[in-house]
Predict the 3D structure of the following.
Amino acid sequence: MTATDPALTALAQGWCALSLLHGKIESHVERALQAKHGLSVREYSLLDVLSRQHDGEGGHLQMKQVADAVVLSQSATTRLVTRLEDRGLLSRYLCPTDRRGIYTNVSESGTQLLAEARPTNDTALREALDEAAQNPELAPLVRVVETARVPV
């Protein structure tokens, strides 16, 4: 394969389009969440992921699982958890069955802030997708995003 290979060019163009769509969505949602709730997209995502934990078997996520879910390194996730804990939105405690494990839960104020921010996130996401759909190069990707489902 050479740098002028049409397949490589198409692949690179597809990646650029996906990256552009992601950037447009993230910046639009970021502005909305910051303006109305003082949350970044990453903070919102972390609260959202942690709010879905439960007490049953496998219900609490380990830090690596949280990091994977919010697409950050473990160290960046730990720093983010610390910032949200300092704001009173999260709390940490030792795993009752494994003293090496630390669990993180969303506090009552974190749950309230997440509930208030969720409609803002959803509206901003819809606005960003609607705007991107006007671009013929991004419209096919928007359709994929609108129909994609995360595997359970």
Notes: Strands lie at 90-94, 102-106. The longest strand covers residues 90-94.
